[in-house]
Amino acid sequence: MELTDRDRLHFYTLMALACSGIVIWYEADNYIKDSWFAFDFIVTIGVFVSILVLGVPAFIYSRRSLKTTGNKWFNLPINILIVGVITATALEIAIKVKSSRPVILWAHYDGGVNGVTLKLYDNGTYEIENYSFLGGDYHRGEYSIVEDTIYLVKEHHSEIDFIERKLVITPEKVLFELNEEGEYDDDYISMRIIRMDSVYSNQLRAPQ
């Protein structure tokens, strides 16, 4: 049975919806992402494939049919794709704005296979990345600072319970784990300070 123009329009409209939905989902997932995996690039490749397989044919069909028939209904797949592009672009901009927040303290612990990164942002929020070579998790919340001590306001995820809610800053390190005596020790496991914003040096002053 031969497909009618209406059948083709429905088919390519569904293709445009699927393509836009996949791209928007991908960008939204990146915006709220709380974990990553070493093979995430496969998902990215899949998104590009969906654009080529679903989006491009829908766009070409829509433009060609609109020119030959003049029926504005054939513009529907293009309109759907435009909405998808605008939404995905807005999410991408939001991701860049989110990742460009000023960092006042950046510290890192490298345990070989595993590692922990701490970032304190100037808006009173923190981000802890707990990772291995296969992937990692992000844990976010709020913090407060009193002299040389950082207090993490929100509870951690169970997977990073080894990080205390109270962290101590020394001139070169952030102490995040108690030693066997239940005390903070500069020679024990700690994060190396990679960067500390000089603007906040008084707020983040270390004990002399």
Can you tell me about this structure?
This protein is of the alpha+beta class. It has two domains: 5-99, no CATH class; 103-200, Lipocalin (Beta Barrel), CATH 2.40.128. The chain is 39% helix and 27% strand. It has helices at 5-32, 40-69, 76-99, and strands at residues 35-37, 103-110, 115-121, 125-132, 135-146, 149-152, 166-169, 173-175, 190-196. The protein has an eight-stranded antiparallel β-barrel. It is elongated, with a radius of gyration of 25 Å. It starts with a helix and ends in a 12-residue tail after the last strand.
Write a brief caption for the model.
The protein is of the alpha+beta class and 208 residues long. 39% of the residues lie in helices and 27% in strands.
Quickly list its features.
single chain; alpha+beta; Lipocalin; 2 domains; 3 helices; 39% helix; 27% strand
CATH class of the largest domain, anyone? Mainly Beta
Mean pLDDT: 84
Strand order of the largest sheet: 2-3-4-5-6-7-8-9
SSE run? HEHHEEEEEEEE
The total of beta strands comes to 9
Tally of helical segments: 3
Strand proportion: 25-35%
| Unreliable stretches | none
The whole-angstrom Rg is 25 Å
The best one-word shape is elongated
Measured distance between first and last alpha carbons: 84 Å
Q: What's the domain count?
A: 2
Structural class: alpha+beta
The level of helicity is 25-40%
Named at the architecture level, the CATH assignment of the largest domain is Beta Barrel
> Can you tell me the CATH topology of the largest domain?
Lipocalin
Let me know the largest β-sheet: 8 strands, antiparallel, barrel
